[in-house]
């Protein structure tokens, strides 16, 4: 197949109808829960759903909120340009879900907190990272300004009216829309290229099926190691200590439901990942002889997927609208999660302590509607000027999430760490991560590290010769003048930015702690820690006490029992 000589079509009436239904149903869910829960006015009911959610809707919500337009549009384009090694993210997802379910969720759930940042009293960093995260959703290739405003208004509307329950159930609905959108592209796309066998053959010929590259060079963009190890640190910063994830998990009725929701979510993540990868392979098979980017039909790789959808589904009224609804479902889910999570952190860590007499209704409308609804929408406008959607989004996640993950891990795994170590480690981690990340934005890695695969225009009937963009040349003999760090430190794979921030935060934090004096274990809440000393020093009580700062390492069950006895005694006194 080749690019059509005439421009692809645009939306027709039925496409707009299908697309509009997404917003109508999403808003309707918010109205439903606003009416249903009108007597539940406490912040607990709004922010964590009264802790009565079950695992299935929470699992669907988690999957939808993190499989955003970055995945729907960016992942297929990445596979189109760099190959199917993107599928190795499944390994990272598995590690991330296991660590989150077995390490972080038990700590946050048993502590009874609402905001994860109550543990370390550092919510400002989360707000910065999460607002930036929302800002990466602006690149959708569909009526940018109108889409940004519509997304912001609808998300703010149903978040403010229905609280977390509305967010979770709207996410579940949007997850179904995402799968339907992907299936429409997969089925029609496979037919357009002559079937799955023909698609597979063209992808193999074009080098898109070379998945396993075990080169240990950390400067290579995607290898087995960068995707599995670097991807684990990147997504652990997004999942393990992220307010959006933890808030959904602690909304579950039991800790078992919370952990099960994460494992069911892993299945959803893998399904969406496979859909995105196969969409990328089908898109490459369709354009194997005539790349629309090189031919000038689209101005950026992230526009390839919308262009492809209009070309194969344009003759079916309503289906292009379904796919755009698929992309916006991820966007709506992520923006809604961000607004709700930002509101929770702000209320629990700021408002409740500064304006104790402010009513719940005033708090909800002010925080969600006025502040973060407008802020997230405005930041999305800024994101419309950013580059490649996948790498830009995950780079930001890594720069912000790695140091945050390091600080949480320092507090949870090392009770002996003190506040000076935590603050100093975090500052060092965020500094080093942003140094590498900003350097990479200014001085992009040379093509021999990123290694984009060849794109061909020989089959384009309106072109006389094959044209390949300069950015896709696999090896360049000369480069413009660059500083010494440009081809080493600044060329580090973007997936290692989180690991750099994590390791720096942990190392500097422990070093400062050792120089300024270990935290006394008596000041540590046993329910908020899972000391690494209990794992590696299980044979030595002295080793455990060193990790705990000299205090007795009591079992968590004993602490819960003692607390329960004190609470009962307090009720009878």
TrEMBL record:
Q: Name one Pfam family in it.
A: SSF
Of which family is this protein a member?
Belongs to the sodium:solute symporter (SSF) (TC 2.A.21) family.
Q: From the Swiss-Prot or TrEMBL record, what is one GO molecular function term?
A: symporter activity
What keywords sit in the KW lines?
Cell membrane, Ion transport, Membrane, Sodium, Sodium transport, Transmembrane, Transmembrane helix, Transport
Q: Where in the cell is it found?
A: Cell membrane
Q: Where are the transmembrane segments?
A: 12-35, 55-74, 86-109, 142-161, 222-241, 262-287, 322-345, 365-386, 392-414, 421-443, 489-512
Q: Which biological processes are named by the entry's GO terms?
A: sodium ion transport
Q: Give the way it sits in the membrane.
A: Multi-pass membrane protein
Put simply, this protein is called: Solute carrier family 5 member 12
Q: Which domain of life is it from?
A: Eukaryota
Q: Which Gene3D superfamilies match?
A: Sodium/glucose cotransporter
For this protein, the record's InterPro entries field holds:
Na/Glc_symporter_sf (IPR038377), Na/solute_symporter (IPR001734), Sodium:Solute_Symporter_SSF (IPR051163)
Q: Report the principal subcellular site.
A: membrane
Give the CC-aspect GO terms: extracellular exosome; plasma membrane
Native source species: Gadus morhua
